[in-house]
C-alpha cells in the first residue's frame, strides 16, 4: 500500500523524490516523461488511445484475408465459391449468440482486462488454425479457424469500446470512437492491397504456388493478430496501474441483456432491424466476392481489382467521423438513411447493368456505407428505453450476423450456378427491401410523432422541455 501511495505522490505536480528534493528542479525531459507516466495526464491517455486503436487492427486486417486471396484460396484449396463463402459464414455463426453474451462475459466473468486478452488470444489462435488449414491442405481446418477467429473478433470490438468509455468519458468519446473505426478500416484496406503481393513473394520464395504458399501467407498475415495481443497486454497493465494510482474503476460495457425485452420492441425498431440486415448483406458478401468480379467483368489486373475492392474501406476511414458530426449537427436521421440506401442501390445498379468505370460506383458505395452507419445505429436509442438498449443492440448485431452467415452461403451458390449478373440482381433486391423498410419507417414514425426525423435543434428543445 505504501508503494502505491509513493508512486501516486511521485506523479503529482510538486511531488518529491526520495531525497526530498522538489520535483520542479528536474529537467524538462523528466517532466515530459512524468506526463507520459501519469494516468491523469493527456500525454498518457494518448498512449492508451494509440494502443486502443491498434487493438482491433489485427482482427480487421485478417477478417478480409479470404477476400484479398479469393482467387488463390479457390485455386489452391480446390473449392467452389459456395465453399469459399463458408469462410465468412463460419465467422458470423458464433456471433449470432455472442452478441448477447460478449458484454456479460466482459462485465461479470473475465473483467475488461482479462476479457480483452482472452478474446485477442481467440483471434490469434483462429488465424493460426486458418493458416494451418492451408499448409496441411485441409479446408475443414480453415473453416474451424474462422469459427474460432469469429468468437474473438466481434467480442474484441466490444472490449475496445469499453476501454474507450472507461478512459475517455465525455466530450472526447465520439472522436475516439471515430478514430477507432478509422484504424479498423485502415486495417481492412492494408489487407486488401497487401495480401496478394505477399502471396506472390512467398510463391517466388518457395518456387511454386499451392496450398503451402497460401498457408504461409496467411501465417505471416497473422503477425498483425500478435500485435493486437501485445496491445491487449499493454492496455491491461496500464489500466490496472491507473486503477491503483487514481482509484479508477474497471470499465463496464453497460450492457444489460434481457431477452424477455424482445417482446416489447416497437414496430419502428423492427423496421430498423430489417434495414440493417438487408443493407449489410449487400455490402460485406459483395466485398468478399468483389475482387474476381472486377477482374472478370472490367478486365482489371489482380492488384487494381484489390485496390478498387478496398475503396469502400478507404473512404470509410476518414468519412465516418465527418458524417457522424454531420448527423449530430443536423438530425433528420431517416432522411440520411434514405439517402444512403438510395445511393447504395444506384451503385449496385451501375455495377450490374453498365460498363462505366467501377471507381464511380465503388466511391458512391463507400460514401453511402459510411453515412448509413452514422445515421442508422443511433436511431435505436431514440425508440428504446435506456434499460433495454443493451438487448436492442445485441439483438440487432445478432440478426445482422445471422443474415451475413446465411446470405454469404446463398451468394456463393448463386455465383456458382448463375454468375455475377444474377448475384448483383440478388444484391439489388436486398437493398430494395431495405429501401422499402426505410419508407415504411418514415410513414410509421410520422404517424407516431416523428421523433426519429427531428432536427438536432428540435431534439435539443424537446430535451430541455423534458428536463423542466
* Shape by Cα distribution: globular
* Rounded radius of gyration (Å): 24 Å
* Mean pLDDT score: 86
What string gives the helices and strands in order?
A: HHHHHHHHHHHHHHHHHHHHH
Largest sheet: none
Strand content: under 5%
Q: Helix fraction?
A: over 70%
- The poorly predicted ranges are 1-6, 12-26
User: Terminal Cα separation, in Å?
Assistant: 47 Å
Total count of helical runs of at least 4 residues: 21
User: What structural class results from the helix and strand content?
Assistant: mainly alpha
How many β-strand runs? 0
General description of the model:
The protein is mainly α and 468 residues long. Helix content is 80%, strand content 0%. The chain has 21 helices and no strands. The longest helix is centred in the N-terminal third of the chain and has 55 residues. The protein is globular and about 70 Å long. It starts with a helix and ends with a helix. The relative contact order is 0.12. The N terminus is likely disordered.
Summarize the structure.
With 468 residues, this protein is mostly helical. Helices cover 80% and strands 0% of the residues.
Amino acid at each position: 500500500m505504501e508503494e502505491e501511495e509513493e508512486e501516486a505522490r511521485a506523479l503529482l505536480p510538486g511531488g518529491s523524490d526520495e531525497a526530498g528534493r522538489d520535483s520542479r528542479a528536474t529537467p524538462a525531459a523528466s517532466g515530459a516523461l512524468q506526463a507520459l507516466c501519469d494516468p491523469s495526464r493527456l500525454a498518457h491517455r494518448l498512449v492508451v488511445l494509440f494502443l486502443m486503436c491498434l487493438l482491433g487492427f489485427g482482427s480487421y486486417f485478417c477478417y478480409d484475408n479470404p477476400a484479398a486471396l479469393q482467387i488463390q484460396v479457390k485455386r489452391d484449396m480446390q473449392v467452389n465459391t459456395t465453399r469459399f463463402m463458408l469462410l465468412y459464414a463460419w465467422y458470423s455463426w458464433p456471433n449470432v449468440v455472442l452478441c448477447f453474451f460478449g458484454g456479460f462475459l466482459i462485465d461479470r466473468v473475465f473483467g475488461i482486462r482479462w476479457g480483452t486478452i482472452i478474446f485477442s488470444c481467440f483471434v490469434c489462435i483462429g488465424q493460426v488454425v486458418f493458416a494451418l488449414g492451408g499448409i496441411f491442405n485441409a479446408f475443414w481446418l480453415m473453416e474451424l479457424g474462422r469459427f474460432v477467429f469469429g468468437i474473438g473478433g466481434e467480442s474484441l470490438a466490444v472490449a475496445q469500446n469499453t476501454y474507450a468509455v472507461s478512459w475517455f468519458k465525455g466530450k472526447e468519446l465520439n472522436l475516439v470512437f471515430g478514430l477507432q473505426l478509422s484504424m479498423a478500416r485502415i486495417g481492412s484496406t492494408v489487407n486488401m492491397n497487401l495480401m496478394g503481393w505477399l502471396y506472390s513473394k512467398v510463391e517466388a520464395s518457395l518456387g511454386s504456388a499451392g496450398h503451402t504458399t497460401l498457408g504461409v501467407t496467411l501465417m505471416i498475415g497473422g503477425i498483425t493478430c500478435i500485435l493486437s495481443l501485445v496491445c491487449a497486454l499493454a492496455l491491461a497493465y496500464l489500466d490496472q496501474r491507473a486503477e491503483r494510482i487514481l482509484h479508477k474503476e474497471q470499465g463496464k460495457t453497460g450492457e444489460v441483456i434481457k431477452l424477455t425485452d424482445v417482446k416489447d420492441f416497437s414496430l419502428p425498431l423492427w423496421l430498423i432491424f430489417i434495414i440493417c440486415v438487408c443493407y449489410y448483406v449487400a455490402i460485406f458478401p459483395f466485398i468478399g466476392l468483389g475482387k474476381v468480379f472486377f477482374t472478370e467483368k472490367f478486365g482489371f489486373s489482380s492488384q487494381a481489382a484489390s485496390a478498387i475492392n478496398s475503396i469502400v474501406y478507404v473512404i470509410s476511414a476518414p468519412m465516418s467521423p465527418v458524417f457522424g458530426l454531420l448527423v449530430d449537427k443536423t438530425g433528420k436521421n431517416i432522411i440520411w438513411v434514405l439517402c444512403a440506401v438510395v445511393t447504395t442501390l444506384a451503385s449496385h445498379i451501375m455495377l450490374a447493368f453498365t460498363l462505366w468505370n467501377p471507381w464511380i460506383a465503388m466511391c458512391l458505395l463507400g460514401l453511402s456505407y459510411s453515412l448509413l452507419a452514422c445515421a442508422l445505429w443511433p436511431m435505436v436509442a431514440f425508440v428504446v428505453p435506456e434499460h433495454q438498449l443493451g438487448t436492442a443492440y445485441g439483438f440487432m448485431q445478432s440478426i445482422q450476423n445471422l443474415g451475413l452467415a446465411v446470405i454469404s452461403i446463398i451468394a456463393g451458390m448463386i455465383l456458382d450456378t448463375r454468375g455475377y449478373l444474377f448475384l448483383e440482381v440478388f444484391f439489388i433486391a436486398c437493398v430494395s427491401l431495405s429501401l422499402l423498410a426505410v419508407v415504411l419507417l418514415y410513414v410509421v414514425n410520422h404517424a407516431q410523432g416523428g421523433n426519429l426525423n427531428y432536427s438536432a435543434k428540435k431534439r435539443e428543445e424537446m430535451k430541455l422541455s423534458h428536463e423542466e
